[in-house]
Amino acid sequence: MWRWGGLASPGLVLALLVWRLGTGPFVGGLRAVDIRALAAAAGIVLLTTLCSAWRWRIVARGLGVTLSLPAAVAAYYRSVFLNVTLPGGVVGDVHRGVSHGREVGDVSRALRAVVWERSAGQVVQGVLTVAVLLALPSPVRSAMPVVAATVVVVLVTAVVAARARPGRGRSAWARVRSTVAGDLREGLLARRAWPVIALASALVVAGHTATFLIAARTAGTTAPLSEMLPIALLAMTGMVLPSVAGWGPREGVVAWAFAAAGLGAERGVATAVVYGVMVLFASLPGAAVLVVEWWRRTRSPSATGSRLREGAIHA
Fold first, then answer.
1. How far, in Å, CA of 236 to CA of 240, rounded?
2. pLDDT tens digit sequence for 33-83
3. Residue ranges per domain, the chain?
4. How many separate helices (H) and strands (E) can be counted in the chain?
């Protein structure tokens, strides 16, 4: 039920948008995409992928898992491509963690590194979003003091939990608590790790924000930066929700934010469409990584020997 609900909800959002706004904003967004926007997206995503891979490598090293930067960049490109082409939005991250875990012989630790790396990025994005929404006018500004207080409480609780000494209990809950505290302490909050993780995450958020702002300009929005920046961060918050190949919540949140800001829901949908096309184009190196990996598997000695044995059996 959860899986089918996660697939149906984005479809319902898109259906509602088409029912209320028609197909014009979607078609207009597709037509607005030009080579300049695609080239800008490719360059920005290259930088954000490098920063994300850097962050992943730091977290993995803190958890005791080896990972080279070139391998991390290739795996991250593959992950982004899978996330924007398959339902759910996290398939690429799961694949990235499992593949890395099989390479190093520790799937559990590698998966935890991916989870903490993505979580760190979301935390930094949340903090920056709250700060911008507190400082600049937005449709949700009245609720931001409560949200900011909640974020502070959550962050302080996480730091205290990470600094606490692990319990000596043998229950499953005690083991989970000890593992989580150890991962936070060694992977995220270590003295040499957290400044790099914070910087890399901030650069990733800046890159995604710049991509959205370019998409808005490409779709014809002329609002000033002070008005568009809160909308961009709200849109990225909506992109965290489960989607179908990235579509659904993004268009719904952007349409609502544009309408609430007086820019028109139609323009918001067009901007979201342009953004989706830009990100898909920029993630295509991940498809190349998948093709290269498939080719290497088919050409590996073990695969060749398996095919020869199968041929001998059939003969």
1. 7
2. 999 999 999 999 999 999 999 999 999 999 999 999 999 999 999 999 999
3. 9-296
4. 14, 0
